[in-house]
Amino acid sequence: MKHKTILFVLATLVVISCKEPQARRPKQQGTTNFYKEVLKENKKLNALEKKRLEQWVAKDTIKEYKSSPNGFWYAYITKDTLNSYTPQVEDLVMLSYDVTDLHGMVLYEKKERSYKVDKEDFIPALQDGIKLMKKGETITFVIPSYRAFGVTGDGNKIAVNQPIQSTVTLIDIKSKKEE
């Protein structure tokens, strides 16, 4: 009798354990709507910031700013009308630049650095802006936060959603073709 009970329990366990597991359905969390709302709010904030920067640029009577299709404004301090070569992808450029807020408060002092065009991490707007420059030119860029350090800032001196200015001098261009 004991053997029959044990066999019955074992047979029952085997039958139960051989059953295929039921797949669990994922929970519906509604993240799509959340992301759409965040995107919508960011677009509003970017439009407001763009409008403020356009007004700021218009008030600056000393410099003549041009609007870039890449979302920033720039004004020539020193312009070269003789040279025609501008940096291309993978060219190595030597430049000096500083970073200030819109009130002229220095966030990062002027420093020199080399930069391989479009192959290194750099301020997004300046990556595009450098390609407008010729050797020896100096340009002041007015950069909205979303083309600079965005919603995170730089974790140091540049705040969250802070537009910045940067004056860049293109010291030298070493063309990839020359190598």
Give the helix proportion (percent range). Answer: 25-40%
- Write down the Rg: 29 Å
- C-alpha end-to-end distance: 91 Å
Number of strands: 6
Helix count equals: 3
The outline comes out as elongated
Helix vs. strand class: alpha+beta
Give a short account of the largest sheet: 6 strands, antiparallel
Mean pLDDT: 88
Question: Low-confidence parts lasting 5 or more residues at pLDDT below 50?
Answer: none
The secondary-structure element order is HHEEEEHEE
Q: What percent strand?
A: 25-35%
Strand order of the largest sheet: 1-2-5-6-3-4
Characterization of the model:
With 179 residues, this protein is of the alpha+beta class. The chain is built from three helices and six strands. It has helices spanning 2-17, 31-59, 124-130; strands spanning 66-67, 73-78, 92-100, 106-116, 138-143, 164-174. The protein has a six-stranded antiparallel beta sheet with strand order 1-2-5-6-3-4, with helices on one face. A hairpin with a 5-residue loop joins strand 1 and strand 2 (73-78). The longest helix is centred in the first third of the chain and has 29 residues, at 31-59. It is elongated, with a radius of gyration of 29 Å. The chain starts with a helix and ends in a 5-residue tail after the last strand. The relative contact order is 0.17. The mean pLDDT is 88.
